[in-house]
Every structure is written in C-alpha cells, then in structure tokens.
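Comment on both lines for my students:
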Amino acid sequence: MTDVSTGVLHTLFHSDQGGHEQVVLCQDRESGLRAVIAIHSTALGPALGGTRFYPYASEEEAVADALNLARGMSYKNAMAGLDHGGGKAVIIGDPDRDKTEELLLAYGRFVASLGGRYVTACDVGTYVADMDVVARECRWTTGRSPENGGAGDSSVLTAYGVYQGMRASAQHLWGDPSLRGRTVGIAGVGKVGRHLVEHLLEEGAEVVITDVRQEAVWHIADRHPSVGVAADTDALVQVEGLDIYAPCALGGALSDASVPVLTAQVVCGAANNQLAHPGVEKDLADRGILYAPDYVVNAGGVIQVADELHGFDFDRCRAKAAKIFDTTLAIFARAKEDGIPPAAAADRIAEQRMHDAATAGGR
C-alpha cells in the first residue's frame, strides 16, 4: 500500500490474475474519492484510456468494468496502430452529485503516482474541463482543453471514425461505401452520437434516434426535424427497414434479447464492449448481420488524445482516423479468409501485434 497525499493506493491484482498487469484501488477520504485504475498491457507502450465516472452499485462491479474496459483499450490501441497499451479508470459515484475539484485533484495525484504507466483521458461522466483539473496534479493527462495545451473534445474524431467504419461496412456488404438513402438507427446521441448524426445527414442517410435522456433527443429533433425518434432501444432495434444499427451509449447492447429481433444488416457504433457475452458475435454472423468491431471503429478519440502527447495536430489526427475505413475492410477480409466472425478476426490481429511487441521487448 502506498500513501498518496491523504489517500491510499492499493494494488489488487497482478499480471497472473485475469491477464492484467496491475489493478489498483484508490481511496481518498477527504474528497470522498473511490476509484479503480486498471492496466491491462504496456507491451506497446504506456497504457492509455479514459476515466469513467459512474454510480456503480458495488466496488466489485466497478472493478469488473475497469478490467473489461482496460482490456478493450489494449485491443483498440493495437488496432489503431498506436504505441500504447491499454488501461482504464473508473471513479465510483454520481458525477452530477459527487464530482468536485478536490476529488479530481486527488484522482490526479493517484494517476501521477503510477509514474506514466497509465495515461488518462475523458470517458463517460468526465469532460475536458475535468481533465484540465486532473492535469494540475498529473502530467500524464490528455483530453485537456486547447487553452491548457490539449486537443479538446475527442468525441468529434470518435464519431468520424465510426462514420468511416460504417462506410467500410457498406462497401463490404453492398459494394458501395455511400450511405445515401440508408437508414441508420443511433442509440445514444450524447457526446459521440450527436456528431455521428451530422455526418450521416450530410451524406443523405435517413436517421432514427433514441436516448435515455429525453433532452438529448429533443436537442437533435429540434435541430433536425427530419430525424426520426424511437421510444427506446428495444423499439429502435426493431425499426422496419433499418440498414445499420449504431449503439453509442453504454456496453452490452448486443445481447440474447436484442440480436434475435434486430432488423439491421450492419452493426457499427461507438459504444465500448457492445457484445454482452462471448458467443454473441457468432449469433450475429449466423443471422447474416455484419458486425464492425466496436474497438476498431470507435478509435478516433484515442487517436486524438494519443496525438496530444506529441503536440496536437487536428488534420494529422483526422487523416489517421480516416484509415479506420481501411482497417475495418481488412478485418472483414481476414474474417472471410479465416472463416471466423469479424470480432474474432480483429482480436487475432491485435493479439499478434501485442505478442510481437512483447517478444521484441523481451517480455
């Protein structure tokens, strides 16, 4: 156990447990901070991943989410061609009620205590302004505002990457990358989903949306009256004539309940960990539904924050995010060649890159 300011940082797991290199529990009594930082792999470089602020029902649930998200970041960063491993942090609490400057500063001290093994950024429940506060205590912070040396909102390029993944899916399935005239259902129109709506409408796609936050739906509907609105996600996945389904909220969207009734031919969205459990990818394939692996198509944001560490250049990042189109096509081709679902093909490619890096580094 290591003292960090007024708090404690306790290592929970090591690399022989769950495949993660390190998982630590952070607690600061003065600010009320309770957080978990998970480092899955540093084979390709320092672990990079955002900080999620969420009211988990238990510490065990928070640890499980951090482990799952950190592993996903390893694969995402590998497929994005970044020299970063995977990590993730979760702060336990309601961001609207529990988030304070003191808590974020305490969290920054914990991240700093890891000495650069983990680089943080925004995620669900955290924003650019929050990273500006964290950065006051930790230089390994990305997703900061331009005024504070950062790149700003990473959701812009996340949405752009998902859009490129959709175009690649259309090319693979229909022989044409154009989305004009296609009907796309977006579940979650917050940070990323609202930007994705703009890309799709600009190309001439038909868009149907839903969100658990009614104000987010109203914002889009007022701005774009042509956008359709579904009552909820259960209704959205069953919309008649849906071509593409884009889960852009929390994970687990593709489940034993949703896959059998899904009307779309393609799933391509921004949410992390969309597959509710192993085997769902086969269920999708058995139904003839093309799945664009989430951690591949939603990598635009991490491409942006990684670039921030080297002096951010938006045009350079956008060009890298545009390559998600080619990466997604390559995964579909590998899946066809190996006779496996695209999710498995993406995993194989990412695992090979991590293995090669670890072997070259003598790990």
About this structure: The radius of gyration is 20 Å. The chain is about 40% helix and 20% strand. The first strand starts at residue 2 and ends at 4. Residues 1-6 have pLDDT under 50 and may be disordered.
